[in-house]
User: Fold this.
Amino acid sequence: MINQTKGYDCLAVKISREIISRIFRVVLIFILIMSLCACATPIGVKKVELRDSYKSINANALSADEISSYTKVLLKRFNLLDRLDKDTAGVIALLHEKALKDARRDILFALAELSFFHGERLRNAISPDQTGLDKDYFLMSSIYAYYYLYGRANENSPRPYDRRFITASELYNRALGRGLALGENGDWKFKKQVHRLPVGDITLVPIKNSLGIPLEDFQSFLAADDYEVRGLTTRNRTAGIGLPLVAIKKKTKQSPRGMAIPVTALLKIEGDINALSNNAARASLELYSGYDEVETMINDHKVPLETDSTTPIAYQLNDAPIWDLGIQSFLTPGKKKSELLMIQPYQRGKIPLVFVHGTASSPVWWGEMWNTLSADPVLRKRFQFWFFFYNSSLPFVASASDLRSILSDTIARIDPKGDDTALQQMVVIGHSQGGLLTKLTAVKSGDALWRSVSDKNFEDLDTPPEMKALLRKWAFVEPLPFVKRTVYISAPFRGSFQAKNWVRGIIKRIVSLPMDVLTLPYNVVAGNPNILSNLFRQLKLPIDIGNKLPTSVDGMSPDNPILQTLAELPVASGVKTHSIIAIDGDDIPPQGNDGVVEYKSAHQEGVESEYIVRSGHSCQGHPLTIEEVRRILLEHLKSVSVLPSVSPP
Assistant:
């Protein structure tokens, strides 16, 4: 009996402990729940970093796979937010029907964003739509954005401070690129066409081409936004309406490498959203040159155009062989002739700005300066950019002769009547050896260059007529009447201290001059003993030269009498000159050098300005060099008495 009682007591104690344990667990769970509720209320805030907050506030269909808070508010108003992911196309259709009766702009903005959002999802789906439906929704996004920005409504036009104004402009631009990229490679096709969209038909008609070039002369039109730029410091864009394009011009004899031209495409919508539903909407597709046009008219208001001047430059330079062109032509100069590269169509009323590269170089090394200067709205509108390419291992007097001849022939060809006054205000900029060529466009040498190498009268030469004519072109120089300003950058007017005898010896062994140049000294010396002995003696070359002629590296020798004479020649009256001299280090002029050319060699008396940039020899891409060139060009514009009127080519 006692044992039985003890058993009951033990059982009671066990049950009591179990009850207490359960109560304790319940209390503990309750405390934990209360603690969690205290830490995360259904509505509250959390402190975040500024950039995270900015991204969250400004998130939209362009920046992420979500819609903006503005569109969410509108969908919530119509109880459509929960339906969005399940049936985006249905939500768009319902909102379109509401917009037919409700002219408020917030519905149009939501339609623009939702159409882009749906187009992106169709485009990036695991099994992308093959019917082109994604392009239809992108085009719808542009149309709705246009209605929001410029269409008639019961409300005032959106203000620039409204984030929807900026987002709608970007939706219009980007969606236009996706919606009209109908070619196999994503390029545009400009022709009259009817687009059958889910909400109605619209007819597109190309009606304006301000490029001055027939559309059939272009190979393709590519959206600039589809490309990432590398190698250039900045990507220059102007904000506005329209889609920046890279227009690829077909190759021709005059332009064997083709052209990549900045263009802006604009789609102007006629009629309202009701016209779209009734299949009566029309739109005009317009093209504007990125070189000069920066605004257009929409509903009697001036509207800025979106432009991209950098991507066409990078596209054109995205060609490996042209980067090797300079060194290849230096080593084998007979294989490539001098030429003037007009990388944009000639436009009447624009001043030519000619760039001349240096030794073993090519026009591609002007890329940074070209990109920066062409982004300046004033310079872009007033100048056209030309580039001179030459075989930089030839004697510099030969290359300078080519430059003068090609510039003269080009001016005569594009302006046979001589009535484009802008062509008579040419600016020539030369780097290194190119600076020597540049000066030789603006001097009257008389017989000074010839006398520096020979005591014999030129007319007494006993040599074949064609050889005599060639020597005359090299040694007797007249200034080009249309060159009004020159800029020398790191130019070795008194030679380069790097042009040592051993360097010149190596170059002479590896450089192969063309036959017409190789036979020149033989023909001249054969009938005129010692005619050029002064030149070869001072250059420390053997007088019995056989069939060898000094290369451009020999010409850079501080002992070259032709170079010394050129350094002292004054430029023609009416020509303004400027020097940009590089010094690599802290030396104060007249001390210092850039690693190739000493300050004393580059210095020129009588220039309008002399600017020192702390850099090595290849300073044409240095920001301060470019800024000084910009200053000079703006000064040149002030000196032009009559402002040229720019017109299409």
Summary: Residues 180-318 form one domain. The chain is about 40% helix and 15% strand.
